[in-house]
Design a protein that fits this description.
5-stranded antiparallel sheet, binds (Z)-L-Arabinonhydroximo-1,4-lactone, Jelly Rolls, 2 domains, mainly beta, 13-stranded antiparallel sheet
Length: 497
């Protein structure tokens, strides 16, 4: 930016639990993906502030098993990405039944990634990988405990050893272990991933401890403040191109009246770190931050329109639990995305859905739908119980809202036969009183002359994490509720704040 600042979050939208890894001039980040397939988005950067998605690590059913009973916020939790011995290592928990901790390797983080090495001896969630000078691999998990691991075979040796449980906050988790200077540093999150979240650090002379807590813990928290970035925690450390230290972490942007609602899920932020007396001190975390002192490498914006003119979908597109080619394909009707319904509504685990994360507080989306052989449309989804959608059937368009146990038809309108352009506009809610929600979602149809006719406007709070619960954020996309539905293109565009 010409004003000398860059924007934070550096990876906006539902991209939580970032783990970062540097190899030469290149940086890579991975995030949790829960019930979505493909899983674990992978980002690349040269400057820590501009990031482009280069793939999804888990893009084959053999790598990512999610079942109809894998509810929203189940599935893939908190990966750790590391580079060691000439390859990338990715360790992660799939909380779906029978899965557990899994290890994958790749020579290129864009993929392909290996099949999983199963880790039945690694308990719990949030696994971290770290190698000591002897080449021993230490796997540290939430709790916080540690076990020796042979990462090639997945075999563990000994029993997990309790290392540290933080300063007494809830949920000591997200451990990462680093050799920095004379010490081994154990960085964890505690306080839970909601408003109490924070980052605490301990250090020891060996990777197995004993660990001495930092006197200034938590080294980062925004709890009990009115800071616009809340829930800050789950951090990972990295060095910038000039050797300075930085942390990626998750945070949220609650808006509206009290208690505040965040709708984009937990996002990836960047914060500066300095070392004072052998302890990390986290600098100011801001929405616009001073540009770092090294050359910037902006990445091209993701194009507004996806024409579905490529054989494979772009990596930003995700589906629910799986994406069988027989139900979702760009090869059936050239340059269209074709969805064949399985489940008949977005409440069903087997609904056929293709969406992308909402990444901007203000944005618009449009899609041109041909419902001649079925019924389907455009949805904004928080989870299976919290979604709004506009649906086209031959000759008619309807707006629905599903909030918890309630589902209602909000509006309907006849339309001419043939393809129809459906859309949503998401805009901040004008401040009114202490109960004002975060934003408003207006669903409508685009007329042949390009004007947008709103059929229904809905309060965004019901598609927020504070209402729905869980760990995810909004995803906007296309679905089929009956028969076969074709989508000519999909536009997603940020709007001025
Ligand atoms: C993740 C835990 C957390 O496993 O939330 O914020 C959990 N931190 O470390 C799910 O993302």
């Amino acid at each position: 930016m010409s004003d000398g600042t860059v924007s934070n979050p550096v990876i906006p939208g539902f991209h939580p639990d970032p783990s970062i890894c540097r190899v030469g001039d290149d940086y890579y980040v991975v995030c949790s993906s829960f019930e979505y397939f493909p899983g674990i988005p992978v980002f690349h950067s040269r400057d820590l502030v501009h990031w482009a998605q280069i793939g999804n690590a888990l893009d084959r059913p053999g790598q990512l098993r999610l079942y109809p009973d894998t509810a929203s916020s189940g599935g893939i939790y908190a990966p750790t990405l590391r580079h060691h011995d000439g390859r990338f290592w990715l360790i992660v928990t799939n909380v779906a039944e029978g899965e557990g901790n899994l290890l994958f390797t790749a020579t290129d983080p864009a993929g392909p990634w290996s099949d999983p090495v199963r880790l039945p001896g690694v308990p719990g969630i949030d696994p971290d990988l770290s190698w000591d000078e002897d080449g021993t691999c230490w796997c540290t998990v939430a709790g916080v405990s540690q076990i020796r691991l042979d990462p090639y075979t997945g075999e563990t040796s000994g029993e997990p050893r309790q290392l540290w449980s933080g300063t007494g906050g809830a949920a000591p988790e997200a451990p990462h272990l680093y050799r920095i200077g004379d010490y081994w540093y154990l960085m964890i999150a505690e306080g839970g991933t909601e408003r109490g979240h924070g980052v605490s650090v301990a250090r020891g002379r060996t990777p197995a401890g004993p660990f001495e807590p930092c006197p200034a813990n938590p080294v980062l928290t925004h709890r009990s403040t009115d800071h616009p970035i809340q829930n800050t925690g789950h951090a990972d450390l990295v060095q910038g191109p000039d050797g300075s230290w930085w942390m990626v972490l998750l945070g949220v942007r609650p808006r509206g009246g009290t208690p505040g609602w965040h709708v984009l899920g937990r996002e990836t932020f960047l914060a500066p770190v300095e070392w004072v007396d052998g302890w990390p001190v986290v600098g100011e975390l801001t929405i616009r931050m001073p540009a770092p002192a090294w050359p910037l490498h902006p990445v091209p914006d993701v194009p507004v329109r996806d024409d579905f003119d490529q054989a494979e979908l772009q990596p930003c597109w995700v589906s629910l639990r799986e994406r069988p080619a027989r139900l979702c394909t760009t090869k059936e009707r050239p340059d269209w995305l074709t969805l064949h319904a399985a489940g008949d509504s977005l409440d069903e685990p087997d609904v056929v859905f293709v969406g992308r994360r909402q990444q901007h507080l203000s944005c618009g989306a449009r899609t041109r739908v041909d419902p001649a052989e079925g019924r389907g449309g455009l949805a904004v989804r928080l989870d299976e119980r919290h979604h709004y959608e506009i649906e086209a059937a031959a000759g008619e368009v309807k707006v629905f809202a599903r909030v918890g146990p309630l589902r209602t038809e909000v509006a309907s309108r006849p339309v001419a036969a043939g393809p129809v352009v459906l859309g949503v506009e998401v805009a901040p809610h004008p401040p009114a009183d202490a109960r004002t929600g975060p934003d408003l979602l207006s669903f409508g149809v685009e007329e042949p002359d390009g004007t947008f006719t709103v059929l229904g406007t809905l309060d965004g709070r019901y598609l927020s994490t504070e209402v729905a619960g869980g760990f995810t954020g909004r995803v906007i996309g296309m679905y089929a509720a009956a028969g076969t539905v074709h989508f000519d293109w999909f536009d997603y565009e940020p709007r001025p704040a």
